[in-house]
Structures are given as C-alpha cells and as structure tokens.
Design goal:
This protein has three helices and five strands; from the N terminus they run ααβββββα. The protein is α+β, with helices and mostly antiparallel strands and 91 residues long. The protein has two domains: 40 residues; 51 residues, HU Protein, Chain A. α1 packs across α2. 43% of the residues lie in helices and 30% in strands. The chain has a three-stranded antiparallel beta sheet. Strands 3-4 form a two-stranded antiparallel sheet. The two termini are 20 Å apart.
Length: 91
C-alpha cells in the first residue's frame, strides 16, 4: 500500500478531502520522525512501537573486489509490532 492509497482510504473513511487527509498524514509522519530524531520512542497502542537502535562500527567486505571496508557506527529506526497488529495479521 502506498502513501497515496493510505491518504485516499483515510479521506474516504472519515469523509475528508484528499488534501486535508494528506496534510494530517504528513503531520503524523513528521511527529514520529521528530520524536525519533530526539531519541524518544513512539508507541501506538494496538499497533506497535517505533524506536532507534545503535549499530556499532564494523568491518564489511566489498563483494566485487573482496577488500575489507570500514562501516561507520550509525543509528537505525526499528519497529516492533504490537499485540493488536500481530493478532489482526494472524486471524
């Protein structure tokens, strides 16, 4: 499902224009991004939790040349599905 499909479905479900639904969707995504950028967790009851995980620096291998390369430490987003989402998928 694409962003446009989500916006269309939300607009239809709650009787809004696509423009208003798109702004609301963008605001939710921006709020999640902002919280994660600050190092906070974002929990949506019945859906799941977004968080940040730290990846350590490591040595990788270039598959084309076989030479070792250094991969820098970084932060990566993580999503853990909640109980409600897991049950919805498995039923």
């Amino acid at each position: 499902m694409t962003k446009a499909e989500i916006v269309t479905k939300v607009a239809r479900e709650i009787n809004l224009t696509k423009g208003v639904a798109a702004k609301a969707f963008a605001a939710v995504i921006a709020a999640v991004e902002d919280a994660l950028r600050k190092g906070e967790k974002v929990s949506i009851a019945g859906f799941g939790t977004f968080s940040i995980t730290e990846r350590k620096a490591r040595v990788g291998r270039n598959p084309r040349t076989g030479k070792d390369i250094k991969i820098a430490a970084r932060k990566a987003p993580r999503f853990t599905a909640g109980k409600g989402l897991k049950e919805a998928i498995n039923s």
